[in-house]
Amino acid sequence: MADIRVCFTKLGNLKYISHLDLQRAIHRMLVRSGLPISYSEGFNPHPRLNIALPLSIYQEGERELCDFRVTEDVDVQTIKEKLQSAAFPGLDIVSVEVADRKLATKRAVWRLVLETDITSCEFESALSGEMKVVKRSKTGEKTVDISPMVKFVSCESENGFMVLRVELNAAGNDYLNPSYVAAFFGDRVKIKRVVRENIIF
Q1: With 172 labelled, which of 28, 51, 102, 150 sits at a CA distance of 20 to 30 A?
Q2: Rounded distance, CA 160 to CA 189, Å?
């Protein structure tokens, strides 16, 4: 018995499905693969699955992570091939490995494609100072400074759009949705695409 970690994509039309729908789709993929998957107990058994970080609707991911368990020895290349053959458009298997530690996420790198009149120098300057936004939580709304949760990576013009890359906190209660970074710039930006490039744990 071994815990398996899969790196996969969630691209294209998959940005329109919820995290719960993605979870169900991966469940079906695991079943179709024919792999010796470990199932939960009870009246409605299902494959034991742990997806690292939920993606909001309209967000894509290039290196998403999930763990599941196999009950027999199967080499990782075979697992990758069987999963890929059972996968669906937009979900490609990037890599498969034996998980040697738990999925405890720390940060995530995001790529935001923006329609804006803000220059790259202005972005870099704005992201180096205080960033106050209205943040929503279960207890209501409050104005907070998100700058400690944001690490500027790069900013460049591409095909008429501004491509902003940032590294954001992604650990438990410190998780920051990239939509708040865009919200900081208000009406001067319009989000065209949001892609999570990598998860750091």
Answers
A1: 28
A2: 13
Q: Tell me the C-alpha distance between 81 and 93, whole Å.
A: 9
What tokens were used for 165?
A: 């890359």
Between helices 76-86 and 19-33, what is the axis angle to 10°? 120
Task: State the Cα–Cα distance between residues 4 and 86, nearest whole angstrom.
Answer: 17
114 within 8 A of 162, measured Cβ to Cβ: yes
Domain 2-98 is found in CATH 3.30.70.580: yes
Over the stretch 4-56, which tens digit does the pLDDT of each residue have?
Answer: 999 999 999 999 999 999 999 999 999 999 999 998 887 788 788 999 999 99
Q: What is 107-200's CATH topology?
A: Alpha-Beta Plaits (3.30.70)
C-alpha to C-alpha distances, 199 to 7, 12, 133, nearest whole angstrom: 10, 19, 24
Rounded to two decimals, what is the model's pTM? Answer: 0.91
Question: In this structure, which amino acid lies at residue 103?
Answer: L
> Is there a shared CATH topology between the 2-98 domain and the 107-200 domain?
yes
